[in-house]
Amino acid sequence: xxxxxxxxxxxxxxxxxxxxxxxxxxxxxxxxxxxxxxxxxxxxxxxxxxxxxxxxxxxxxxxxxxxxxxxxxxxxxxxxxxxxxxxxxxxxxxxxxxxxxxxxxxxxxxxxxxxxxxxxxxxxxxxxxxxxxxxxxxxxxxxxxxxxxxxxxxxxxxxxxxxxxxxxxxxxxxxxxxxxxxxxxxxxxxxxxxxxxxxxxxxxxxxxxxxxxxxxxxxxxxxxxxxxxxxxxxxxxxxxxxxxxxxxxxxxxxxxxxxxxxxxxxxxxxxxxxxxxxxxxxxxxxxxxxxxxxxxxxxxxxxxxxxxxxxxxxxxxxxxxxxxxxxxxxxxxxxxxxxxxxxxxxxxxxxxxxxxxxxxxxxxxxxxxxxxxxxxxxxxxxxxxxxxxxxxxxxxxxxxxxxxxxxxxxxxxxxxxxxxxxxxxxxxxxxxxxxxxxxxxxxxxxxxxxxxxxxxxxxxxxxxxxx
Length: 467
Ligand code: URP
Ligand code: ZN
Ligand code: ZN
Fold this sequence. Notes:
single chain, alpha/beta, TIM Barrel, 12 helices, disordered C terminus, binds N-(aminocarbonyl)-beta-alanine, binds zinc ion
């Protein structure tokens, strides 16, 4: 079965040009003028942009706590509807299990259910000595990144500096990319105690307890630990100018230091946490939303390549019954916001349409660079002959508003409710299969495949730390 995409404008991280694409089975067979003249079916992409399917390197399907489990892969069609054809999802270490066994369990739970292709990041939760001996097996299983948390003291998520340093050393040797949630846990715990003792229990105190300097301090410390270990490091969900500048300076000095930000840190301000009627809980995530002045710093950092990727940090947490757990105490509000469906729409509407981000940079942070950093490129993240036919036909003329009522995220809210949307993924192909048509999802549950990722450095030819 062959498909031709004709008359569209192809956008890559460095270029845009008119050309046709021929797809054979699951792969792109050819790109050029006239290559799609003899095909079984044709998609006319006149006036459309043709983009690589998005890579969302930061999702939490099925994560969360026992009291507030997040929605799982049964809602992953939302990713595809929003133009994301592959996610790299977090597979947290389970109690009494090692990293590999936990990741394989997560993989089994996703297979046959996921609508989107997926890779997995391992997440350290119980740093017993044996986990350091499992890292080679993780790479063999196609899992070439690992996340540790400097935040969330008093929970299994929290890792000490010595665990992080040890993990960076071993990971660096094996081609595993270490991902860090950088916030100073002691400062936050101290602020939380102080605020609660003053009766300050509402959602807005979540942000007060986690100031930009707590993020900046941990970001700097994480990067210095990576320097000591001579290992690459990836700082997830950079939310503020101060932390961004630390990532920027390290990256510009040639160290393999990379940073991600998220759509909510680019568009939503801290004032949302003060919405009346406990509505502010919908916006509780960590790091917290910041003053709006940070938004432009982050857009500019993406445009200037000081930050490299945009991940959604999608957390399928319901407002009713889950965020509710923190009505009397902001520290008990489950952290995280949904958004796997909105990443492309937010980048285009608030970045490209406003002139803050070029189209080419959008493609880079949305698809190409996450694919490179996470060991998926060139199979995914680009429009290349031989690569998977993961393609978004994007209509820049679309005008609408984001609404939870149109969403496949399976939740009772979206933090972007009512916000204007310019452009949308009109058609999405996942490995050659048409899954979104006319902006509506028509794919099948279980169509998503586990994607084996190669070690860091094998797919990324960028900056390397010199010995
Ligand atoms: O608030 C957030 N981001 N929750 C998800 C876990 C994490 O820190 O990424
Ligand atoms: Zn995090
Ligand atoms: Zn996260």
